[in-house]
Amino acid sequence: MSRPYKRHQPAEVKRRILVADDEAINRIILGSVLEETYDVIYASNGLETLQQIRDNIDLLSLILLDLRMPGLTGLEILEHMRSTPDMQKIPVIVLTADQNAEVESLTLGAVDFIPKPYPLPKVILARVLRTIELFEDRQIIRSTERDPVTGLYHKEYFYRYAEQYDRYHPNTDMDAIVVDIHHFHIINDRFGMAYGDDILNKISEKLKEVVRGTGGIVCRREADTFMIYRPHRTDYKDILEHAAIEYADGNHTSKVRLMMGVYAMADKKVDIKQRFDRAKMAVDTIRGNITKNIGLYDDRLREKELFAERLIDDFRTSIDSNQFIVYYQPKFDIRSDLPILTSAEALVRWRHPELGMISPSTFIPLFEENGLIQELDMFVWQSAAAQIRYWKDTIGYSVPISVNVSRIDFYEPNMTSYLESTITAYDLTTNDLCLEITESAYTNDSRHIIDKITKLRSLGFRIEMDDFGVGYSSLSMVSTLPIDAIKLDMLFIRNAFKDGKDTKLLEIVIDIAGYLGVPVIAEGVETVDQLRTLRAIGCDIAQGYYFSIPITAEGFEPFLIRRKCQETSAVLGSCPGI
Question: Are residues 225 and 137 in the same domain?
């Protein structure tokens, strides 16, 4: 049963067909068959045919093409169409009495034949309809499988065709390659999205040239990242040089800097997505390295990958068996000569029964990438709340505890209600639990996150902007953000106190915070010189190894007891010093 004819367009719109034949009688015969159903236009020679194609490039659904025409032959027109991207999308049925021409016509892109003398009208109509529908279906599929900016495969289709490539070339060694554009966001910011899209399009054309020359396929993975799957070769540097196009930068030209990660001679027993994850891992090893632009996946990265898989596999058991422990690092008000305990930051540690203490710098980015960070954060929130309750009940005193809120947490619909229920369950208030949110979180989907932060503040939670100085927010942006404190990243502090100490930028940030009416917290304070300088330029609160390393809840209790004594004692000196 045939499908309804006009399923792709409104009933009043007719598909346009070009009939190209130098014999008037042939044009008349085909016109009489087609004109009731289609909008038919005509050409009587090769040059007129080519002009009609150009004039109707976006309107033609089909071309019926005679091979023997003056000016340009049908075969020459097919060859021209094959080399012109916009014309390649138009299907061609060849009109011929020469069966020997069929193979050459197919090679040049023809999809079907109508023999001369012509068959019955219903046969012609059936072949025309079938060809048009097949090509329209192909265009629909193409629109879903291709990236609209570059015309390259989308990621999921790319993986599918890569697997197909393996089936057809089972004994061919293959390379999985990831190509990144270094600091592409700067091009977008300076010249606009349209200019950036043009850069992406030009690079994609260069990468297509690479696979045309070596075999394989290429896709745009996301944003400014491309993937190549091709037979193994070692000319990686040549690929980068070929694809690194120049672009206008003021009065001179600059070259786009590309980075490449390679999983060479990829193990075909490994899932296709994982092969490119390994190539991505390789390119990540050279980020920030101005002297190197090619990273290779090797045994060292393999061991790292296996270790990461082990941590992910062990996460659930580790949560359930209390292998994660919350440590506390005290924060001190440094505005007076004697630093005074004012709060603490909750920091999670992983004491693995076989692997020992695992650094947070190892497992936190891993859990953020694999979607486990939400559960870990909620564990820390619960643990900190329970500990505050315990201190209130046993010591009769507590200080606010800051907990980290990951950017990913903001995409959990029930995050706000979970925080509310946590403090309610332990009979606490929003003054007991402060929320530390990284500066970079504000710049990722900022409207959504800012709305959530505003809601949290309206409930009474205090918000500390964490890691300030390593993110991307402008100073003008900071002035409009919903924050209650600015926390300077330890690297920001460390850089300010390097050889030839320069604290001018610190002073500017502290002045801005003063203008906004929010305190400044400095983390990573390690020396008395840093403490004195920070106090002199107006910093309010500090934490770091100078005061205390992160310690267990039991280790933190003496700090609480001394602080309680300071508050309740009539004579300050009767309490032990800090």
Answer: no
